[in-house]
Write a structure and sequence with these properties.
about 450 residues, 3-stranded antiparallel beta sheet, Fe3_Rdtase_TM_dom, alpha/beta, flavoprotein, about 50% helix, iron, 5-stranded parallel beta sheet
């Protein structure tokens, strides 16, 4: 049994980390939108209304592109407070907004100049690409953004392997560079004043620095420092396995119960593949443990790892932690292998806890013995809920019967998407305040 860390006291309602981070992000975006509008007005208006609209949409497309980079930079401060799943969702919707803004920019500019030159729009676009520096680069950037947008559509995303989707997504960075050089070459607002030039250089520099720091420098530095290796591989059932990992100075790794890593096991056939797995035990400063179900090639291969295998881990990620607690007591609801972060949270939590563990049959309840020991040691309640999906054994009536005081508890939910959605709907029907409900859809992480 791993040692239990002493968690900080639950934050008060006046100091909710997630809410403060969201307000900060919204405020940052609004402030930059206002600054862009000021510089746009200072640069002056043209005679053609379509060109003016084209310039304005182009500026806000540039701002959205920089904001996109911030959302996927995986900065620890933001991720711990908002969670990778929500940041990824915001990135997705911002991306579609960026696509339409860029299309608007291209259409307004092309039709505006076509109106002034009496050329048809197609020939006008070709003429601009041939004669104006930076326009061809902008056309290529738009084409790349359209391709990335197409593969990010829900139907296409389901058909692609994560690695293929991720590789195509990397072309976004090429589009960013092309768009920036286009803005430098032809952006009248960019060069309208020294202040405007400094602002745009600062904005792009900050966004790119955030990405490099969060997605490259920090993971490389942490892995060089901690030098993670597999120490043991323990089968938990026929299709579930736990991997134990150790390394140097793990007491300085800022990991918490409920978080996950993107794991790369550096074998000759799997070093390139990253998989998101939650910690299934609270970090104790000496070891880390993940527990995974064989749901694909990557997770199935874990069973064959050898002790001593080097590990490259990105993270920790996620806001599914005790940092967001608002009440002294908690209800933990797990479904299937979603029990892994729930088991870790139970180990870290103080106050009274109740655990509801939903599985089809008792033999599917991995880590159940550990949960039972932990619950006994901590004075927590544990209910193993078994049976087929219908009828719903976690329906609102059942939840209130099993945990009559659930509206006075923080509620943590982790499980299959369908179960999570149904439980969240039931909690809302029962009147559990939104600030007391904590969940994370880990499938968005990879």
């Amino acid at each position: 049994m791993t040692a239990v860390q002493s968690p900080p006291a639950p934050p008060t309602a006046r100091r909710r980390p997630g809410a403060m981070a969201r307000i900060g992000l919204y405020g940052l975006l609004a402030a930059n939108a206002a600054v862009v509008a000021v510089f746009f007005v200072q640069a002056g208006f043209g005679a053609n209304a379509l060109v003016v609209l084209g310039r304005l949409t182009g500026l806000y497309a540039a701002l959205l592109m920089a904001f996109q980079l911030l959302l996927v930079a995986r900065l620890p401060w933001l991720d711990r407070r908002i969670g990778m799943d929500r940041l990824t969702l915001w990135h997705r919707w911002t991306g579609f907004g960026l696509l339409w803004t860029l299309l608007g920019h291209a259409v307004f500019i092309t039709f505006g100049y076509a109106e002034m030159s009496s050329m048809d729009p197609v020939n006008q676009l070709v003429d601009l690409a041939e004669t104006v520096e930076g326009v061809l680069r902008a056309v290529v950037a738009l084409a790349l953004i359209m391709v990335v947008g197409a593969v990010s559509a829900r139907r296409a995303r389901r058909r692609l392997a994560y690695e293929t989707w991720h590789f195509v997504h990397l072309y976004t960075y090429v589009a960013v560079v092309l768009a920036f050089t286009h803005q430098v070459a032809v952006g009248s607002t960019f060069t309208a004043s020294t202040a405007a030039t400094a602002y745009w250089y600062g904005l792009w520099g900050a966004a790119l620095t955030a990405v490099l720091a969060g997605r490259l420098v920090l993971p490389l530095w942490r892995n060089r420092r901690h030098r993670l290796r597999v120490t043991a591989v323990v089968p938990e059932s026929d299709n579930v396995v736990s991997v134990h990992i150790t390394g140097r100075d793990l007491d300085r790794l800022p990991a918490r119960a409920g978080q996950f890593f993107l794991w790369r096991f550096l074998t000759k056939d799997r070093w390139w593949q990253a998989n998101p797995f939650s910690l299934s035990a609270a970090p104790d400063g000496r070891t880390l443990r993940l527990t995974a179900k064989a749901a694909g090639d990557g997770s199935a291969a874990l069973r064959h790892l050898k002790p001593g295998t080097r590990v490259f881990a990105e993270g920790p990620y996620g806001a599914f932690t005790t940092l967001h607690r608002t009440r002294p007591d908690a209800l933990l609801i797990a479904g299937g292998v979603g029990v892994t972060p729930i088991r870790a949270l139970l180990e870290e939590l103080d106050g009274h806890a109740v655990v509801l563990y939903r599985v089809n049959t008792e033999s599917d309840a991995v880590l159940h013995d550990e949960l039972r020991e932990l619950a006994l040691a901590k004075g927590a309640g544990l209910h193993l809920v078994t049976g087929p999906p219908v009828p719903d054994r976690l329906a609102p009536g059942e939840l209130s019967r099993l945990v009559p005081d659930l509206t006075d508890r923080d509620v943590y939910v982790c499980g299959p998407s369908g179960m999570t959605t149904a439980v969240l709907r039931g909690l809302r029907e029962l009147g559990v305040p939104k600030r007391q409900i904590h969940y994370e859809r880990f499938s968005l992480a990879g």
